[in-house]
Amino acid sequence: MTVLTSIGKAASPGPRQLAGRRRPVRETVFLIALQFSLVIAIAFLAVLLAYVISKGWARLDPRLWENMPSIRRPENAGAQSAIVGTIYLMGLTALFVIPTGVLAAIYLEEYADRDKWYNRLLELNIQNLAGIPSIVYGILGLGIIARVIGLGFGLITGALTLALLVLPVVIISAREAIRAVPPSIREGSLALGATQWQTIYRQVLPSSIPGIATGSILALSRAIGEAAPLVMLGAATFVAFNPESLTDGFTALPLQIYNWIGQSRPEFGVLASSAIVVLLALLLVMNSVAILLRNRYQKRW
User: How far apart are alpha carbons 33 and 23 in whole angstroms?
Assistant: First the structure.
């Protein structure tokens, strides 16, 4: 639009108006680039899923989760011990990491004095730990948890190591979820006479559960696919029994897949593809639980 001056002449558009005219073009280009990136990501995922499912479809039957692994008879081999070990690992890891991560996030967001040097150092270390390679956590679990503490190389050692691996992610995501709660909720609760802990327990935490659940499930989704820390801990790639206690030996789906891929017979490649499909199905179930929890508490709050 042209702008009329006080003497009736049309003034030339200013820089802001020109920028406003160019902005829709830039936004359109940026939107197209985002959509193109999304299409590429989905296309690669679809190709990967199609390849894995087509290759492992012949062994996606009850033998896969009912039979134990075998290195001599691939036609009857299964992955029961790896599936059970993975489920136990994820359950113990969630039991260790979610309460610890949420409580640490509550302290850092609600109680910690950011002017104190040790609180700033703690926050810095948490952010740095989130980017450390997983093999370093495997060395930590081997040297401290397995040998110094003396827990051995059983299931509990693997779960504690994976919990340390994803703990920084859980803390960071929980802090973001707690920080997103409007301050008016806290102020209103305190104004009505509630203590700080009652405000956190009855108002802040329920409002932040969707974000905490999403971050925790994503962190566990990373842990379920990690093989390097378990290799450092000496987890066996061939286990023909299910763990019955926290100190028993174990295996997991990533290790079992690695073992089958390393075999020379082509039947083991089919088994590995079918085990990958099972691993992806477990990831899908975990993410679905996170979505259900998020939707449930968003409707409630």
Answer: 15
